[in-house]
Amino acid sequence: MVVGKVTFTKLEREKLAEVLWLLNWISVMTGATLFGLGLFLKIEILKWQEVMSDQGILYVPHMLITTGLAACCINFLGGKICLDCADTNKFLRWKLVMMPYVICTFFFTSCVLVGALMCYSIRGQLEESLFLGLRSAMRFYKDTDTPGRCYLKRTLDLLQIQFHCCGNAGYRDWFHVQWISNRYLDMTSSAVVDRLRSNVEGKYLADGVPFSCCSTFSPRPCIQQQVSNRSAHFNFDRQSQQLNLWRRGCRQALLEHYTGIMQSIGLTVLLIWLFELLVLTGVRYLQTAMENVLRLGDPDSESDGWILENSLAETARSNFNIIKNLGKCYQTDNDPNINVPTPAVEQEVPSQLRPEGSLTSGTPQVQNL
Amino acid sequence: MALMLVKFDLKKRVKLAQTVWFMYWFAVMAGVLVFSMGLFFKIELRKRSELMDNNESHILPNLLIFMGLIACGINAFGGKVCYDSLDPTKFVKWKPMLKTFLVFCVVFNALLIVTALMCFVMKIPLQFTLSEGLKNGMRYYKDTDTPGRCYMKRTLDLMQMEFRCCGNDHYRDWFEIQWVSNRYLDFSAKEVKDRLGSNVDGQYLMDGVPFSCCNPSSPRPCIQMQMTNNSAHYSYDHYTEELNVWKRGCREALLSYYGGMMNTIGALVFLITLLEVAVTVGLQYVDTSLSTLANPEDPESESEGWILEKTVKETFTDIMAKMKATGKGGKVEEGGEEGVATGFPTLVSGIFCGFGSPPPKKTLKSSKYDIEEIMLDCVQMELISNANVFRTSSAPLANFGGMMHRNIAPLTNILRLNSLSYTERPREGVFPSVIMSQGLWRTFLTEAQCK
């Protein structure tokens, strides 16, 4: 039972080849677009990679980049092949390459689909990575003298200024970390010593936030120290408190930023995948039609094209058997119909044959299968 | 002796026309570029007009926008003319206006140079506007409840963060003004009263800066308050502290930003001027090469092209003489014998430029004007033969002798070959015989008769 059978006249075959040539060239450009999108995403992620704990999210842009490059190469070759397919004589050149080419195209099209799906599914991993990354970044905010962490303060400040956010989930996260380095604390002062003693770990905790948390929309000069104590500042009402600092958490801000980018990229990649599927179907039809023409022997006749020669189940079964038999290439077979001569039979044969002029060579040879 | 004379055959003419047409397309895109640069500059000025006291002069971006639009129009028209110049029938309709168009192009190029120079010069008024505007901006920083000024705080904060600057000239400018509003000051507190009393104007001055002055690259958390008091902070010396707040003043920062922008725009406009001059020269060559065909009926004949018909000095003196003459030509001349009502050149041009003007019957004295210096506006000879109308116009002549050598030889050929005659008075002998004798100007005028 043939799947998707369509009959093609000679004219239709030539038209199909031309159309596919054009579509392949458009595919090259979409492949370049894919490459560009992957590159863009990679740069965006690398900008803020210091606040991400693991780099697992980089799989997505890498996948897009490799698929884009593969698309360019495969479709470039495909364009060449399809152009030659219009003519039966030129097709003979490509006959052996066609099947592997179709299989390659099928695999890379499914890679494109996987890339698109990854864009949507990576969100959970990203959130986790951002949570852990921001937490350690805030912890190392004060370590501007430690190599490897000296730029975390700057990165975090610029992040909070640019994305209008403060802390991990909110500005209160800053109350739980010591973000002022010991180098700038007067250890002889009683106020400082009291604070250090007031918690278990001996950290200098205060209800203050860095300057980068200050909101530019606030009508009053920024209040950074004693933020939660309304009576410490004159006329510090609820509304002033609301507008004083950024209210959003940086994890939320970065998550929204990256999810937005990846959703648009994912949608574009899905559209590209549909287009590639169309091209793949066209190429498959062209391949089967040309092969059938060669089989029929008459270049001008009509021929059939299909997607699969047998039904899906049978094709799957036969492919599975092929793969199974590939492994059995070098094993001996226990089939009773194959002649495996035993040593006794062997002795007889030379004595019978020798008087007649020996068809075999002098020494008996054991035959192995 | 023409300036930069070049000989052309058909192939060269075609190549010239195609090159100039191609260059005109680049010039159109250059015009679009000038327009967009003007627009961009205008938007940038508008964005920060609050800091310039709403007083900044928009003359430069408006001029750039205007010049960009004109450039697009001129270059599109020039491209069309060049495209049509390859086809003689189409070119005929453009021919009359080409002279004026070229003059207009030259004027436009001069304006472009002026615009480019202005880009470099306008930095000076901008400097004054900025310093005035920033001073006021800082004064109104605290007035977030006053309508019209409530966004000044946000604008200043964003500007200081974006341009990495603090205050007008340096951060100490913030010490001299009150940037904390009275609404947030507790007037019953002793400290506040002390500060208010400590200065003449009764302002709450402190040695602190807003948070937007803070430098994120500083290794320690930002010190905004009591900046000059070393003992208020541990391990702090405000003389040696470099990274705490931005050191640069905002006037300097904004000036270098706008100055850089204006320098780039000025350089680009100058380059575009060069391109425009090149296309104008190209069009002049196209025009002259198509006007000086040796054999006007044969498109494959040779021709010459030039930038100016005479040397620069001679052209300049001729222009001056012409201006003088048109100035004097407005006077009515008395004297019957002369009978020149509208002036010598005009009369001559009337004779040559169309046969509708009344024929002179009198001998004209040429005492006032030297023959060699006569400037003729145009010489058009209409030769009517049977069914064809043939018109030939030569380039502006400054020397009648020159006209002889260049134009009359082919004209003579035409007259001889085609046996053309004037409609009513066959005068076929007149032109060639008179013309051959140089200087017989008067004789020519007495004998030349118009219909």
Automatic annotation (TrEMBL), chain A:
Gene3D superfamilies: Tetraspanin (1.10.1450.10). One of its GO terms (biological process) is visual perception. One of its GO terms (cellular component) is plasma membrane. Keywords: Membrane, Receptor, Transmembrane, Transmembrane helix. Belongs to the PRPH2/ROM1 family. It holds the Pfam family Tetraspanin. Residues 346-369 are annotated as: Disordered. This is Putative photoreceptor outer segment membrane glycoprotein 2-like. It is a multi-pass membrane protein. The gene is LOC118290699. Its main location: membrane. InterPro entries: Peripherin/rom-1 (IPR000830), Peripherin_LEL (IPR042026), Tetraspanin/Peripherin (IPR018499), Tetraspanin_EC2_sf (IPR008952). It is found in: Membrane. Residues 358-369 have a biased composition (Polar residues). The chain crosses the membrane at residues 20-45, 57-78, 98-120, 265-286. It comes from Scophthalmus maximus (Turbot). SUPFAM superfamilies: Tetraspanin (SSF48652).
Automatic annotation (TrEMBL), chain B:
One of its GO terms (biological process) is visual perception. The keyword Disulfide bond applies. PROSITE patterns: RDS_ROM1. InterPro entries: Peripherin/rom-1, Peripherin/rom-1_CS, Peripherin_LEL, Tetraspanin/Peripherin, Tetraspanin_EC2_sf. It comes from the Eukaryota. It is a multi-pass membrane protein. The chain crosses the membrane at residues 20-41, 62-81, 101-121. It is found in: Membrane. Keywords: Cell adhesion, Disulfide bond, Glycoprotein, Membrane, Transmembrane, Transmembrane helix. Gene3D superfamilies: Tetraspanin. One of its GO terms (cellular component) is plasma membrane. Pfam families: Tetraspanin. The keyword Transferase does not apply. Belongs to the PRPH2/ROM1 family. This is Peripherin-2. It comes from Scophthalmus maximus.
